[in-house]
Amino acid sequence: MRHLRRTLLATVLAAGTLASAVACSSSSGSTAAGSGTAKASSYTFWDPYPQFDATSAWGKLVASCGTQAGVTVKRTSFDTSDLANKALLAAQQDNAPDVMLVDNPVVSTLVQAGILNKTGDLGLDTSAIQANIIGAGTVGGSAYGIPIGANTLALYYNKNVLKAAGVDPATITSWSTLTAALTKVKAAGKKGITFSAIGTEEGSFQFLPWFWGAGGDLTKLNNANGAAALSLWKGWVSSGLAPNDVLSNTQTTSWQEFATGQYAFGENGTWQLANADKAGFPYGVISIPAQNGGAAPAPTGGEFVTVPVQKDSSRYDVTKKIVTCLTSSTNLLSTDTTLSYIAPTSAVQTQQVAANAELKPWVTAVAAAKGRTSGGLGTKYPVISEQMWTAVQSALSGGKSPQAALDAAQTAVANHQG
């Protein structure tokens, strides 16, 4: 149990910083925590959206799904890290909520703790969900939740800066063409690319597209492919194509740099779309290129609707109705529009693009994205991620070469798992 708690804490800490950046969570909750042993007419629901109160579109949707199921839903909102910790404690006390919305990297840890039901055992249909998106909540071949949407990373670009440097964004299809574009931009007197390489999950999240885009393997951090990705970043910083402050940049401060209008590119996510429209200059979005061409797999962000294990299994029939309502196509469209997420099904994605053509490159990016805990990594991911961001920090600061930094990272992971 001590190891399990340590693993949960690592996962929660890894996910928490990212969730606050992606979902714009605040630090205050909404209502007092509910109980899984409430009266049959009252069902409890926990989510990581304290920024949405009962009068918001999200708050009203949760309430209406309860009404349609013939019950009252008592919703409680926490920060992501607080929610996951309370979920573990509530389960130990046989007092888990009926429905819980959790950040996708936390799912595997809660499954290991024995907290969540399989969606298949509840008769919930996930067949329409894109395989790579459901993969973030799949453990041992079974899904343990339904994603309400996904967000991921791409490259925003400043049209004015690229035009002045004589760069056509359509020609940027690989690392070499991107680096050539950054060199032209610098020669034209502007700045190249900004991103987040901070020593937290945000840094790993932003490094993963380049790592995976080179064919990197999270179980072998120090292979030649992973080293190539870190060498790319190191080369950009050393040559002034990326600023030194990427080492301390969060995704928010990195965006603020891009928003100055001085940078050609900024690596960031769907959640910045509203800010992009307010930036004051024309922008576009392209997929992060893989090393030798094509779109690199970027990590998926977003939450899963999950059903915690209850002592009274008779509650599951109503719980299923609530979950089905929350994840219906109509409600997914509304929710994902509110959150600036890409829907997890192709049918709803088509509706999103029809309503807003700017989402098309994001649909492409999500289609190529990968779950951070997918491929059987599960609760191993937080340990790997911490060593990854440590290696990035070490290499970019000049403490170690990219290869030496990743060698040390791989050794640390092996020692932890050994």
Query: Order of strands across the biggest sheet?
Result: 2-1-3-11-6
User: Which sequence of SSEs, written as H and E, runs from N to C?
Assistant: HEHEHEHHHEEEEHHEHHHEHEEHHHHHH
**Which segments are poorly predicted (pLDDT under 50) over 5 or more consecutive residues?**
1-39
Q: Biggest β-sheet: count, sense, barrel?
A: 5 strands, mixed
Helix content: 40-55%
Euclidean distance between termini CA atoms: 18 Å
By DSSP, the count of extended strands is 11
β-sheet strand percentage: 5-15%
Shape field: globular
Characterise the protein shown here.
With 418 residues, the chain is α/β, with parallel strands linked by helices. The chain is built from 18 helices and eleven strands. The strands form three sheets. A five-stranded mixed sheet has the order 2-1-3-11-6. It has a four-stranded mixed sheet with strand order 8-9-7-10. The protein has a two-stranded antiparallel sheet with strand order 4-5. The longest helix is centred in the N-terminal third of the chain and has 21 residues, at 2-22. Mean pLDDT is 89; it is low at 1-39.
Set down the secondary structure blueprint:
Blueprint: H1 2-22, E1 42-47, H2 57-68, E2 72-77, H3 80-92, E3 99-103, H4 104-112, H5 119-122, H6 131-134, E4 138-139, E5 142-143, E6 146-147, E7 153-158, H7 159-165, H8 175-187, E8 191-194, H9 201-213, H10 224-238, H11 251-258, E9 263-269, H12 273-277, E10 283-286, E11 303-306, H13 316-326, H14 329-339, H15 346-355, H16 360-368, H17 381-397, H18 402-417
Parallel strand pairs: 1-2, 1-3, 8-9
Antiparallel strand pairs: 3-11, 4-5, 6-11, 7-9, 7-10
